[in-house]
Amino acid sequence: MTLQPPMAAFQATLPAEHARLLRYFNRRVGREAAPDMVQEVFARMFGSGALDRIDNPPAYLTRIARNLLIDRARQKRRDCSIFFPLDENRDAASRAEQTWRIEAVDLLRLYRQAVRAMPPKTRRVFVMHRLRRMTYKQIAEQVGISIATVEYHMMRALVLCRAAIAEQW
Length: 169
Fold this sequence. Notes:
Blueprint: H1 5-29, H2 34-48, H3 57-78, H4 97-117, H5 120-130, H6 136-143, H7 147-168
């Protein structure tokens, strides 16, 4: 069985490339993982089926090695899960979902009351910004006031909302 020219040329450089890749990985991933990484590089190269088309095998091996390091870094970033042990004595019981819904409805009712109680111009500016998602500049142009006045009315509306919530809660 005769070897094909590209394979024969590569086989002659195989020990030197193995040692070079081993040093490369020793510096980057440590002595324990380096042999496995070198083996993976060669497995990828032989598995690519491109041996007869490779002009520069050392450069090709280096590119595979770099890609392997990139894949490894991505995998570590994906697998970076943090687990916390459950301590029933330390962890408080969560509130019932129904309680959260009731409180949300109550809070929404308080906000509506606070908005209805606002002076007309303040209410208009607040509704335009919060519900219609208009910018301060757009509000100023439509209402015919300055941006500073829009800011004043928004601050005033927020203070009134906070005060209404503070009274009830």
